Amino acid sequence: DVKVTQSSRYLVKRTGEKVFLECVQDMDHENMFWYRQDPGLGLRLIYFSYDVKMKEKGDIPEGYSVSREKKERFSLILESASTNQTSMYLCASSLFQGNAGNTIYFGEGSWLTVV
Amino acid sequence: AQTVTQSQPEMSVQEAETVTLSCTYDTSENNYYLFWYKQPPSRQMILVIRQEAYKQQNATENRFSVNFQKAAKSFSLKISDSQLGDTAMYFCAFMKHASDMRFGAGTRLTVKP
């Protein structure tokens, strides 16, 4: 089975802190994603990566950055956390972009509270 | 840009009965993919069913089936013989490219014993 592992399930951070959310997948997938999930809004794409060191902005990249130094690992970085970034963050992965329609596999999510 | 609308924020159904979740989408594309994802209270999102737009036949996976109406841009999910384990948030999603997947706001389904 595909496994997408997010290192932290629950985090509480202070405003202004730098926050790292880590994600690892074990299926050699080319694509990796970070989504943000908020009630009534569904999932919104923050960043997408289709290869090591490659990234594309999603719908809501402001206030976030990402790092993909290894194929299996995709990190989401909040440079200076703010209270409006309190949310559930979902990491996901899938096979390469050229074959559209591939299933996206999700991690369990990271609940981030910024106080 | 594509949009996905789920007009039912919450629904409930009695165990063993059938329930249908609605989803509409807006696109000018002709070839694309549609998905229903389930997110149980444990939070990990899993794929329920997938439909390819160029296939006229509705997808079916055991108790789950879809009613895909391409001209109407409608993609509803029918759950037959509902089970307590079907209690979850259900998200409808549209994909043209992996980097452009769009999700609806979700429908919270509760199966009552």
pLDDT averaged residue by residue of chain A = 92
Estimated helix fraction of chain B:
under 10%
> Roughly how many Å is the radius of gyration of chain B?
13 Å
Supply the number of helical segments of chain A.
Answer: 0
What's the order of the H and E elements of chain A? EEEEEEEEEEE
Low-confidence stretches of chain B: none
Task: Profile the largest sheet of chain A.
Answer: 7 strands, mixed
Q: What's the quaternary structure here?
A: heterodimer
Distance from first to last alpha carbon of chain A: 37 Å
What does this protein look like?
The complex is a heterodimer of chains A (115) and B (113). By secondary structure, chain A is an all-beta fold. Helices cover 0% and strands 56% of the residues of chain A. Chain A has strands at residues 4-6, 10-13, 19-25, 31-38, 42-51, 54-57, 64-70, 73-78, 87-94, 105-106, 110-114. In chain A, a hairpin with a 2-residue loop joins strand 5 (42-51) and strand 6 (54-57). The model of chain A has no long low-confidence stretch (mean pLDDT 92). Chain B is mainly beta and 113 residues long. In chain B, 0% of the residues lie in helices and 51% in strands. Chain B has strands spanning 3-5, 10-14, 19-21, 24-26, 33-39, 46-52, 60-61, 64-69, 74-79, 88-95, 102-103, 107-112. In chain B, the strands form three sheets. In chain B, strands 2, 5, 6, 10, 11 and 12 form a six-stranded mixed β-sheet that branches. Chain B has a four-stranded antiparallel β-sheet with strand order 3-9-8-7, with no helix packed on it. Chain B is globular and about 40 Å long. The termini of chain B are far apart. The mean pLDDT of chain B is 93.
